[in-house]
Structure prediction request, 657 residues.
Amino acid sequence: MILFIDTHLNDVAIVLYENGEIVKEKVIEDVKETSSIVMYTIKKILNKSIPDEIIVVNGPGSFTGVRLGVTTAKTLAFSWHKDIRTVTSLECMALSTEEENKIVGFSDKNGYYIGIFDNDYNLIGNYEYISNSEFEEYSQKYKVITDVTLNYKKIIEYVRDNKEVLNPHEVNPIYVKKIAVEK
Amino acid sequence: MIRVAKLEDVSDILELGQKLLSNFDKTYDIANYIKNDNYIAIISEEKKINAFLLISENASSYELEAIYVIDKYRHQGIASNLIKYFLTNYYDKQKDIFLEVRSDNTEAIKLYQKFGFEIINTRPKYYQNKDAYVMKRVEYMKDVNILSIETSCDETSIAIVKNGVEVVALTILTQMDTHANFGGVVPEIASRMHTENITMVLEETLNKAHMKVSDVDAIAVTYAPGLLGSLLVGIEFAKVLSYVYDKPLIKVNHLVGHIYANKIGDHLKFPCLALIISGGHTELVKMTGDYEFEMLGETQDDAIGEAFDKVARVIGLPYPGGPNIEKLAREGEDTYKLPNVLNDGSYNFSYSGLKSSVINLVNKERQKGNEINKADLACSFQTTAVKELTQKLDLALKETGIKNVIIAGGVSANKYLRGKVKEVCDKFDAELTLPEFIYCTDNAAMIGAAAYPLYLKEDFADLDLNAKSTSNIC
Prediction:
């Protein structure tokens, strides 16, 4: 049984995978206070069972949102002594599209997070965060996929088969976007 | 108020007792119990009795006969308080205590177990068709270990505290060096570092204590006030532990934590005046008991620690400003004239005027091309800032007649301030209690100490607990 946690934006997704299938899926849209619902939702979904593995989306996205998901996942893995793996929000998008050129991106109001992937879902170059005006220019040159429905089954199976198991202490968010003091 | 029953309480006790047992008046001759010095404690509010505890005593043991709390006052820890009152004030440790309880009254059984009672016997069909358990108290109150978490600012700290007074293990990971590069705490970086380090801080704390999370009785966490993003990391972490290990979750106010830093080693005595002084708070609070607060006065603008930090920046001292002002002030004298403090007969404080006048003074002297004597200015500022506190404390000691004073919060680490507060206390023959140095600044041990009374009251939080950036203690 694999528990998948994604809190990187305003939507919170908690998914349970078992024997080749998504057995439970709870997506709560447009959450105002992520902290109030994450643990509560996980508790309901798990219904007293303990997963064998945990997968968490470790960003990029809302700083606080990503942090809550990662803190929850690493603490669960540490406490239960279970395997934990991470996947990025942009990898999730790339894994969920059938298009050939996988340039994926999503907006956080002030700008766009962008990632370019090859057909084996390997990241080409680095993730980038660009402003809305830069995005306008960029999207005229390249076709950016911004609207995908996440394919949780494919994401979970890909991560399970391709990503390495991490020490829970070393599971941390990636932020990409610079904060004022870093500029 | 808890007190021992008197003869004039008999009719009230009988009235409550009827609700417990239809033939209560036939079973217990309350007047006789009182006359024979058997023990009846009651809780009364003005003239009305809300709860009672009846214990009979013979040569070798006690029997807990009855305990009753009226509906409206249930789930507030009143039954616990009655038992605690008996154990603290009347109980002779040489004697055993017995009681009988219906086997399906799980709530009462849980309460008794908390006080060290164990089931020693079953009496089949004792209550009509229900069994009764005979319980005996085998030890004085089981030890309570609380795992506590503090992440409200730039320290990731986890502790295990026993019975609210003894620190079993404490780890404090400070981010001060990182934030010093930016001249102050950067909230986003503080939150990031909490997430990076928190499981490691837990592991280290457990190793120090030679304990597992499953060994503790509850998980406590600071939920307010503080940096929102930082608080949220600690809260989420605490919720996970509470869920995985099925332990009650206790939310603790950071400022109450600073007060309860004095409980470590059991130094907190009531009634007392508490001076809470930190980067975000300047408050004078009267305490009459555990979690019984009355705000006497608070800052009308800046907090004292904030003023220290801003003045430090203006005269070019590195972060953290407060300790650096204190250090520099030792080399200077009180030569600069600074405006006097808020003197309106209230217990309120004000620091923005003082802060502004220092800034203006520095700017004026610079314009004139004059060199500022930084040490003298630091000393003058510190002297005036502390005088603001001591004047109000002086007034409160005089008007309340209270003889215990505690200082809490980060600024209580200032030694000059400690000395001046001590002088005022000495003047009124009041006892000053200071937390040990390590418990003055942010730490999780104080959160564990503050969580203990809440644990006894079973004041628990749910998994939807959220952080609050601002919050007063009363």
User: Anything to note?
Assistant: The mean pLDDT of chain B is 91. Residues 224 and 468 of chain B are 5 Å apart (CA to CA). The longest strand of chain B covers residues 117-127. The two ends of chain B are 20 Å apart (CA to CA).
